[in-house]
Structure formats: structure tokens, C-alpha cells
């Protein structure tokens, strides 16, 4: 049988604003996408700070979908940027201010997540060091120096990534 693979469809054309109403609609969509995503990110930050990592992980699918929507809204804005600069510069300025606030909140979220990651990595490394210390025999060389353990004495640490 000769099966043909489906042809990839061309992406839908990105609408470009050509009227003030279309420009406002694109701006509103971007503001709504940023606000909704920011609400989820703030919730995630609160949960991670409280040590409720499992609950924070439950927001992953929602955050991914909202991030996709945000990306689409940004693409629409970029396609219409020339028109917005000419016809509604105040709207573009407002979007830039809102976006700066959005970026600042994202930075807080990334800092909290990086801190949680560093703490958990430190705990795992500490546990591994303690396990290795217990598995290494206390032997000495003929010169009275502590012998370095061979590969046979080092036991790998297995970590389950599922919480």
C-alpha cells in the first residue's frame, strides 16, 4: 500500500489591525492573556513559597495553555505594531507599562522556583553524601593516609521525580 503522509497545514494568517477597534481588540486580548497568566503564576508562587509543591505542579497544564494564548496575543500585537504606533501610541505605551509589571512578576516567580530548586538539590546532594560516607570503608594505605574508595564502593543514588 502506498500511504501518503498528511501535508502540514499552513499556519493561519495573523490578523493585522487596520481600524482603531481592531487595534483595541488586539490590545485587550493581550492584556487579558497577561492578567490571566499572571494570576496563575502568582498562585503558583504562593504555593511554592508555602511548600505546597504538589499543588503548584497541578497548575502546569493551565499555565502552559495560558502561556500559549499569551504567545498568540503577542504575535498579533507584533503584526499590528506599525499600525498601533501610527494610530494609537498611547495604547502601545499602556501595553508596555502593563508588560513591564508582568515581567517583574514573572521574575519573582522564577526566583521563587529557582530557590526551591536549589534547596531541593542541596537536600538531595546532602542525602547522597551521607549515603556515600556510610558505604565507604574506612581503610588506610601503607603510608598511613586514608585510602580513596574505588568505584565499587560508590553506590548511585536513585531519585523518583514523581511526587
Please trace the helix and strand order, writing H or E for each element. HHHH
Count the domains.
1
What overall geometry do the principal axes of the alpha carbons give? elongated
Strand content: under 5%
Low-confidence stretches: none
> Can you count the beta strands?
0
Query: Which class do the helix and strand fractions yield?
Result: mainly alpha
| Helical content (DSSP H or I, runs of 4+) | 55-70%
Q: Tell me about the largest β-sheet.
A: none
The number of helical segments is 4
Query: What is the distance, rounded to the nearest whole angstrom, between the alpha carbons of the first and last residues?
Result: 46 Å
Our Rg estimate from Cα atoms comes to: 26 Å
Amino acid at each position: 500500500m502506498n500511504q501518503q503522509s498528511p501535508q502540514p497545514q499552513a499556519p493561519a494568517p495573523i490578523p493585522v489591525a487596520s481600524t482603531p477597534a481592531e487595534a483595541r481588540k488586539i490590545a485587550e486580548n493581550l492584556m487579558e492573556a497577561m492578567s490571566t497568566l499572571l494570576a496563575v503564576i502568582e498562585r503558583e508562587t504562593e504555593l511554592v513559597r508555602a511548600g505546597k509543591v504538589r499543588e503548584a505542579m497541578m497548575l502546569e497544564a493551565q499555565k502552559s495553555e495560558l502561556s500559549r494564548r499569551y504567545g498568540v496575543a503577542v504575535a498579533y500585537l507584533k503584526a499590528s505594531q506599525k499600525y498601533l504606533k501610527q494610530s494609537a501610541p498611547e495604547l502601545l505605551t499602556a501595553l508596555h507599562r502593563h508588560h513591564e509589571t508582568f515581567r517583574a512578576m514573572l521574575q519573582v516567580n522564577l526566583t521563587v522556583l529557582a530557590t526551591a530548586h536549589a534547596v531541593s538539590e542541596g537536600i538531595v546532594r546532602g542525602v547522597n553524601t551521607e549515603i556515600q560516607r556510610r558505604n565507604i570503608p574506612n581503610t588506610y594505605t601503607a603510608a598511613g593516609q586514608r585510602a580513596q574508595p574505588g568505584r565499587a564502593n560508590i553506590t548511585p543514588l536513585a531519585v523518583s521525580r514523581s511526587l
